[in-house]
Amino acid sequence: MKLLGKQNWWFWLILNFLLQGSGTIALAILTDCFDENAWYANWRNWLIGTVCFIFPVFIMASIFILQMTAQVAAKLNVKGHEIYLSPYVWLILLIIPIFGWALFFVLILYLQIWTLVMLYKGEGEKYIK
């Protein structure tokens, strides 16, 4: 299956639309963005989040999806990786009320849209095995 091919960009558009941006996890799997030593690979972190209440798991899942979106965008050569790969930028945007929150959502949209554009331009074809 050549899902990362230039002609299959529409598949990722539909998948991201239906899964509300979570389709990036499948892209992360296909582009090999996962790190075995990262915080999300440790099952104890997820167990502690689940035991402490359900709310921390939703926060952890949101951070995980955001991190995978940024990693996939960097692998597909989306411009601006110096900005969106830094966790400090995301924290600053969350801390600043209204203006920062608006820019937070604009940055997420930027990553989602330009990931699809780069798939359309054929950047994903180098990860086809």
Distance between the termini: 9 Å
Low-confidence stretches: none
Range of helix content: 55-70%
Please tell me what the overall shape is.
globular
Average residue pLDDT: 90
Strand share of the residues?
A: under 5%
The main β sheet shows up as: none
- The number of distinct helices, counting runs of at least 4 residues, comes to 7
- Secondary structure tally: strands: 0
Structural class: mainly alpha
Taken in chain order, the helices and strands follow as HHHHHHH
Q: What is the alpha-carbon Rg in Å?
A: 15 Å
Tell me about this structure.
The protein is built from seven helices and no strands. It is globular and about 45 Å long. By secondary structure, it is mainly α. The relative contact order is 0.17. It has helices spanning 9-18, 24-30, 43-51, 55-75, 81-84, 87-95, 99-120. The mean pLDDT is 90.
Quick overview:
The chain has helices spanning 9-18, 24-30, 43-51, 55-75, 81-84, 87-95, 99-120. By secondary structure, it is an all-alpha fold.
What are its keywords?
7 helices; globular; mainly alpha; 129 residues
